[in-house]
Specification:
The protein is mainly alpha-helical. The protein is built from two helices and no strands.
């Protein structure tokens, strides 16, 4: 019967443990690198968000999303009103111009 020597079994166990430890170390390094990148991305996003909030407060007096949406709806409604008014003025000018041309052609 071929029985392995205790020293060989012990060495093999140490080798397996060392390989497992090396694999775990590499996984840790990869995860740690990803954590560092995620932290950096989070910091950048937080900084960008704060800049946008400051800009919104300066321009619109608030950084509340609901208030900003209401302000946007208000601005759009005002733009629509001005567009309708402008269109009316142009139509009036075109009519007056047409009337002048018709009078000249008589």
């Amino acid at each position: 019967m071929n029985v392995p020597d205790r020293r060989d079994v012990k060495r093999e166990g140490i080798t397996d443990a060392a390989a497992a430890l090396e694999g775990l170390r590499k996984r840790y390094e990869l995860l740690n690198k990803k954590r560092i990148e995620a932290d950096a991305n989070l910091a950048n996003a937080a900084e960008a968000l704060e800049q946008l909030r400051n800009e919104a407060r300066e321009k619109f007096g608030t950084d509340d999303p609901a208030a900003l949406q209401a302000k946007l709806a208000e601005i759009k409604a005002e733009n629509d009103r001005k567009l309708t008014e402008y269109r009316g003025h142009l139509e009036q000018i075109e009519k007056q111009l047409s009337d002048v041309e018709a009078a000249q052609n008589k």
